[in-house]
Amino acid sequence: MSRPARFLKSLERLLGLVLCLAAAPAFALAEAAQPLLRVGVVLLPPYAMRDNRTQALKGANVEVMNRIAARLKLPLAWQTFPDLASLEAAAKAGEIDAAPGLVQTPAGLALWLYSEPYFRIPHKVVGPKGTKGSVDLEQLPLSDRVALPAHDALVKFITDNYPVLRREPVATERIGLRRLIAGSAEYAIADEAELNILMREPEFSGLAIVGDTGYTQLLRIASRKDRPELNALIDRALAGVPPPELDVIYARWIRPPYPRLADSTRFWARIALLFLLLFVAATIVGLWQKRQRQALEDKLAATRHELDARAAAGEALQLTQFSVDHSTVGILWVNWDSRIRYANRAAESMLGFKGGALLGQPLAELQPELDMDRWLGLWKQVRAEALVGFETDCRHADGHWLPVDVSLSHLRFGDTEYLVAFLTDETEKRRARAALEESEARLAGIAANVPGLVFRLERAGAAADARLAFLSEASLALVGYPATQLLDHARGLAALVHPDDLADYEKSWRAALVSQDNWQWQGRIRTRAGSVRWADLKASARRFDDGRVVWDGILWDISANKESELGLADSRAQLRELSAHLESVREEEKARIAREVHDELGQVLTVLKLETSMCEFAHAEHDAALAARLHTMKKLIDQTFAIVRDVATALRPPILDAGIGSAIEWQARRFEARTQIPVLVSVPETPVKLSDAKAVGLFRILQEALTNVLRHADAHTVVMRLAVAADNLVLTVADDGRGFAPDTARAGFGLVGIRERAMMLGGTLAIESTPGEGTTLTLTVPLDPPEGDPP
């Protein structure tokens, strides 16, 4: 409501209050002249009815009026009427002063002054008692029929708010409930006052309230229009009645006295909880008994194992001695004085000595550098560190030097201490090492001449970490770091990656690591001087039978090409942002124009229709020609109303305010009514929260898709689905029309516009079509983050 309109309404209320205060003395004089307040009621249970025994009036409206009369200290003179028409005729004749329980209507405003509402009578949805959950009229299938009583206000409310509801008109609520019992309707609609009477009858005992229509009938007290002071007094007396008293009257006469559907489940819920507690207790006892039995079985098994271990100890000792004697590793037991006390066959064979020839020999005979001083130092070191290893050369029996790997370990046997030396022939290992060093030198020479950074990553096994094993010296020219410095760095190549691209780098590397496949990445790196360069990394993976994986790759500098590519991408992004901005401005302008057309022109048409109705009410019955013209004018105003709604809806459909799911269903029904092409719609039961820009963009894409179906598809059926997948909203529009070949067909402006809108929304568009088999358009748009989450 505009500011001038609010000011006029406030001024009107103030003037009414002044008139009421000024008229109070006059009404007091009228009371002295006429001490009775004549009240008329329509005999309609449970609002007003006669007691068969006392013939006195009773009912909800009678009790409310008695309380008002008590506050006004006026006796009441009751008059009863069979219907509303006879009551209004009596009011016109001046036979009654007030009438409770009336509904304010435009026609009644010419006869009555109405009080504030004292009862709000809701209209409920009735169904079988076995119905699960609450019924929502908006979500009922098209096949479900609803019996609707022929009350003008109720029918208009249901028609405006549930246009797709399958309505079955009935004369009264009783007929509607009987149709529900007979199966000719799935649900019925009735107000609570009527249900208070009907639900007490055995015929309707199998029914229950299963939902709410949202429509509420307001009951008021009407008083004569020529007595505004009476209306003011009734309003004040009604305001003085405590709300709890009105609630008691409402509960006694109007609210249906039967339980809701959920009340009957409490007993069974308690029974289920008792059985659950018994089951848990039985489970705990069973687990405790099982644990006790398992403990006894474990003790018995341990005892048997100990007996078996003792029986096998002697055999194990013999097998150990045999294994040591025949081991491929040479084993020497050396005393503190460096003399050999034991040598196995492998040690004697490795050093070329006959059996027993090494016993008693000092180690200096095999390695002259192991004199007594160095041996005692090794003795202390091994006792402190438990294990010491090194490589050396030992003199063979024939005089040549044999390369061996020596591992020393401390051993206490009885009261004597020894150092055990494990000897391994290193001849072949040294040859392989020399060949490897030569190969690495050759690889380093080749890699140094490649115009890029050559590297190798090695992974010893599935559970091991990958390490940087090789890096060419080209790193100095490319990033300013020598290869040795990057090899020693804990992060390796990741130390060069720009912080903004590090997450993408690690993601691509983890994918290659898990799949053990080739690795490819493109992003920014930082040189030692601080400059930023674009690099392209490609590495091929090789897998070995022992579980090792090796990645050999190269890192190229692609800064020049990438800068050109990014410049082109920025230009396209700016064009797309400009297009999105223009589209947003267009939608905002459409919404503004739609609001102005609906609000401004709608208010003018409403006032014009009201004035025409008042003119018809005042003069039509005296002039038939004028009545016809006024009737024609009202039709033209209604047509203009429809045109205004259509224009406002075309500019910015108000159904978008109810959610994108409701908007899609509304658009489908309009398309179906306009083209006679059946449309099957599937939307989520829970409303999808979208920003206004995304909702409008998604709705425009749907409109363009349906336009393409109408113009080009020649379809018989259209299927629309809206679904939530992970963090995305997916809209699918499929038809069974003629289809086309996407690879060869030239995209029209419609598909180009749809694709551009999808990119503006940050989504993707997929089109699947085959000639003669129809077309499927799938749009995926990211959902808005929940409130409180970072964007």
Automatic annotation (TrEMBL):
It is found in: Cytoplasm. It comes from the Bacteria. The keyword Protein transport does not apply. Its cofactor is [4Fe-4S] cluster. Residues 592-785 form the Histidine kinase domain. It is an enzyme of class 2 (transferase). Residues 439-516 form the PAS domain. Its EC number is 2.7.13.3. Pfam families: HATPase_c, HisKA_3, PAS_3, PAS_4, SBP_bac_3. The chain crosses the membrane at residues 267-288. It catalyses: ATP + protein L-histidine = ADP + protein N-phospho-L-histidine. Residues 1-28 form the signal peptide. Keywords: 4Fe-4S, Cytoplasm, Iron, Iron-sulfur, Kinase, Membrane, Metal-binding, Signal, Transferase, Transmembrane, Transmembrane helix, Two-component regulatory system. The keyword Iron applies. Member of the two-component regulatory system NreB/NreC involved in the control of dissimilatory nitrate/nitrite reduction in response to oxygen. NreB functions as a direct oxygen sensor histidine kinase which is autophosphorylated, in the absence of oxygen, probably at the conserved histidine residue, and transfers its phosphate group probably to a conserved aspartate residue of NreC. NreB/NreC activates the expression of the nitrate (narGHJI) and nitrite (nir) reductase operons, as well as the putative nitrate transporter gene narT. NCBIfam families: sensory_box. This is Oxygen sensor histidine kinase NreB. It comes from Crenobacter cavernae.
